[in-house]
Amino acid sequence: MELKDSIRISFVALRANKARTALTILGIVIGVGAVILMMSLGGGAQNLIVGQMQSLGSENIFIEPGSFDPKAGLDIMSATVEGMTIKTLTLKDMKAIKKDPLVDMTYAMVYGVARAVYRNQDEKITYIGITSEAYEMDDWHAAIGREISDEEIKSMARVATLGHKIAEDLFGEEDPIGKTIRIKKTNFRVIGVMEERGMQMFQNFDEYVYVPVTTAQKLLLGIDHLNAITVRAINDGAVDPLMENIRWILRETHNIYNPEGDLSKDDFKVMSQVEASDMVTQITGVLTAFLSSIAAIALIVGGIGIMNIMLVSVTERTREIGLRKAVGARNKDIMNQFLIESVALTVFGGLIGFMGGAAVSFLASIGLSQALNTDWSFVLPLNAVILAFGVAVIVGLVFGIYPAKKAAKLNPIQALRHE
Amino acid sequence: MIQVKDLKKEYRNDSVVTTALAGVSFDIKEGEFVAIMGPSGSGKSTLMHIMGFLDRPSSGVYKFEGQSIEDLIDNELAYIRNEKMGFVFQFFNLLPRTTVLDNVKLPLIYTKIPKKEKDKRVKEAIKAVGLIPRISHYSNQLSGGEQQRVAIARAVVNHPSVIFADEPTGNLDSKSGQQIMEILQDLNEQGHTIILVTHEKYTSEMAKRVIQFKDGKIISDKTIDHRRLAKDGLVK
Q1: Yes or no, beta carbons of B74 and A320 under 8 Å apart
Q2: Which residues of B fall within a CB distance of 8 Å from A329?
Q3: Which residues pair with B163 in a beta bridge?
């Protein structure tokens, strides 16, 4: 029996019961649709974050307090999560690093959350203490007014540049430049408003207030240490040697005896932009796989629905099976016919689910782009497409085999006599 | 062509044993037109099923063209049914929502002959039963007589050496029944061996030989010298 004939027979049978066919494949449609949606959204999120990270420049190196534990792997926030703040990373470290000839630019950072007050306006903000090269390295500048200078950092000046949204919320139509806002009982003079930037890596930069790092340390936080140092190497090729140099510099300034260069003995982490992107890719990949496998449960439920209907179909078509056997169909032919029918059901369901999932993801990408004020791209990973159809075929085979075997085993005489 | 020797068939239902065939023996030669007659429950349908390789005997010998049923596995039986046997049933057993063309073609989808040859055979078979104008109608749009003619076309499409007809007129009005018998007689004239199962004396008299059954045994086996010809019309 030719495959073409089998496929044609299946379609005649499936067309005969349109409503039932539609309801039967609904489970598969939902299952495949959900998996496609999860994988597509996961891919979009990954592209967005990695794209934003890479736009910062592949020459960047991040230094954070806390030791690198190879077993933890993904643990980006170990220093704070463990409840113990490591205070060893300081501005002195940055000065030491800056002397390395492979360094192009650096900036240090501390941050905290507080309320900013102007007259009767009161907004929750994230204030970030920075050094002056932050603007240049982030490629994010003041749209009006000016940026914080080296002098102001040295002198612990009480000046601030505001994120676009904070400026609007606090001042409305008013010109903020030269006005005074209060953060934690300290008055700051507004010297600039930043360009609109929007959501990046799930942070809204337009809600940030930049102040000199020294001012933030002493007046707002009462600390001497930093949350992070970002270093830019002079070129791509210098990234790896510079990371190694930084480790040795910090071991010296932190008095760490570590001649073997064992990373777990350090009290800091050094990571390149590329490593950070890889890590994010890994995290989003794990998340996507997790969500997709939950969605895949619907596929199993859908498969059981297919099996149920195929069993009903075998009973209904007992006479047809008997007749086919009488005119020369072998058990194998009958089995193939019913298997092809169930695979045709699941693949057809998979196709609809695929289109549905892709369509929802496409609409979501437009919606998310607007809601988050960011550039969320619609992604349809090739492996999702292959997976969806592969799974549809497998579900059809697995859940079709029992009804198909049952059909093949029917005795032709009893089948022909069946009413 | 067909050799039956001391053939027995028993059905077991729980511990009750029902005997459908209590040891029958006869031969059928190529080109014969044999009617197997008897009241319902006499075992004639069981015999036809065994002769048509749809069922296996409990004991005894059944040989078709020299091959014994006990030496053949199910797939070989299916192959012989497809190549050498044609079936016509009382209730037609056509595929619903399927055209005349596809119904007649059904046995050919299980063969490996070239497509052109398949198409040619299907056309010939449909032409032989006079249903060319109905070729693309669905089977459920046809009258009973037409449906049985489609079934005959399906039975002959693969050029079988024997045609088994199980009460082919049992579900038809007498005029359609007469048409069906006429076609069967024509096929016999063309050289097909025909084995007809019936309980109607009138129908059996259109065969060349009548084997009478009762309670699973042969009670008579007679050659008809002057058989009725269906095309002479109804004499009932």
Answers
A1: no
A2: 78, 110
A3: B86, B194
- Residue in A219, A230, A212 with CA at minimum distance from that of residue A93: A230
Q: In residues, how long is chain A? A: 419
| Residue B25 within a domain | no
What is the least distance, in Å, from the CA of A414 to any CA of chain B? Answer: 10
Residue with tokens 């990371």, as numbered in its chain: A243
**ipTM value for the complex:** 0.90
Helices vs. strands in chain B: H and E counts, helices first: 7, 10
Residue A241 domain-assigned?
yes
- Least confident stretch, A63-72, A107-116, A324-333, B10-19: A63-72
Within 8 A of B110 by CB-CB distance, chain A residues are: 1, 324, 327-330, 333
Kindly indicate the confidence band of residue A79, based on its pLDDT and cuts at 50, 70 and 90.
Answer: very low
Query: Is the separation of the CB atoms in A194 and A134 below 8 Å?
Result: no
A124 and A33 co-located in one domain: no
Q: Does A279 touch chain B (CB under 8 A)?
A: no
Residues 6+ apart with CB under 8 A from A176: A145, A162, A167, A170, A190, A193
Query: Can you give the three-state secondary structure of A267-329, one letter per residue?
Result: CEEEEEHHHHHHHHHHHHHHHHHHHHHHHHHHHHHHHHHHHHHHHHHHHHCHHHHHHHHHCCC
Q: Does B98 touch chain A (CB under 8 A)?
A: yes
Stretch A372-397: mean pLDDT, rounded?
85
Q: How many domains does chain A have?
A: 2
Among A residues 195-234, those touching chain B with beta carbons less than 8 Å apart: none
A323·B81 Cβ contact <8 A:
no
* Same domain (yes/no): A143, A195: yes
Per-residue pLDDT of chain B (236 residues; tens, 9 = 90+): 899 999 999 888 888 888 889 989 999 999 999 999 988 888 888 899 999 999 999 999 999 998 999 899 999 999 999 999 999 998 888 988 889 999 999 999 888 888 899 999 999 999 988 889 999 999 888 998 999 999 999 999 999 999 999 999 888 888 888 889 999 999 999 999 999 999 888 888 889 999 999 888 999 998 888 787 877 765 54
Is B131 among the domain residues? yes
Domain for residue B5, yes or no? no
Contact A327 B49 (CB under 8 A): no
pLDDT tens, residue by residue, B165-187: 999 988 888 888 888 999 999 99
Report which of B170, B141, B168 is spatially closest to residue B153, judged by C-alpha positions.
B168
Contact A330 B54 (CB under 8 A): no
How do strand A199-200 and strand A203-204 relate by DSSP bridges?
Answer: antiparallel
As a whole number of Å, the CA-based R_g of chain B is 18
pTM: predicted TM-score of the whole model, two decimal places? 0.71
**What CA–CA distances, in Å, run from A86 to A112, A152, A223?**
16, 27, 11
